[in-house]
């Protein structure tokens, strides 16, 4: 006794739903983490000015040091919604953009962690004596690490959408299938209700069905 065979479409449907759900979660999580990390402190700056001016302390957020981080975070959040609306090649292009945004966030995070941070004196305020001051930057590692995680999630989501997104269903396809006309089974005998509906359709088309009946007699 053999097990009943499963139709290929039935077996693939759960996998498609899981892939689509995973892509949406990756994009949304990556975007949320990038926005959160971009608004936090990435570096503490100590500025030593020439005497008799006192030193100046400042903090720089991720959005100030790496403006691409919050911008790409917004793109990732928008992509989590757009993946439902787009189909075909449009979804592939979206996947490439998402992967690029995730990579940009990851690169910015690595630069922040390694201390490759370019601090402009304009970011430190309008204090006197900043032109020839000595600037010491201390990186706060926690938030760049979170941005790195956001970039990896966004990159993974973009790759998944690029490689698999063309085969996922689009928005509204379920309703289109539900509203489609049901095919008539071949070989089913014509019922009185079918003949009644055919007569009304003939009248709507400008044909009198009684003329055919009279000619047949």
Automatic annotation (TrEMBL):
<protein>
    <submittedName>
        <fullName>Trp biosynthesis-associated membrane protein</fullName>
    </submittedName>
</protein>
<feature type="transmembrane region" description="Helical">
    <location>
        <begin position="20"/>
        <end position="43"/>
    </location>
</feature>
<dbReference type="Pfam" id="PF09534">
    <property type="entry name" value="Trp_oprn_chp"/>
</dbReference>
<dbReference type="InterPro" id="IPR019051">
    <property type="entry name" value="Trp_biosyn_TM_oprn/chp"/>
</dbReference>
<feature type="compositionally biased region" description="Basic and acidic residues">
    <location>
        <begin position="187"/>
        <end position="197"/>
    </location>
</feature>
<keyword id="KW-0472">Membrane</keyword>
<feature type="transmembrane region" description="Helical">
    <location>
        <begin position="141"/>
        <end position="163"/>
    </location>
</feature>
<feature type="region of interest" description="Disordered">
    <location>
        <begin position="174"/>
        <end position="217"/>
    </location>
</feature>
<feature type="transmembrane region" description="Helical">
    <location>
        <begin position="63"/>
        <end position="86"/>
    </location>
</feature>
<keyword id="KW-1133">Transmembrane helix</keyword>
<keyword id="KW-0812">Transmembrane</keyword>
<feature type="transmembrane region" description="Helical">
    <location>
        <begin position="93"/>
        <end position="114"/>
    </location>
</feature>
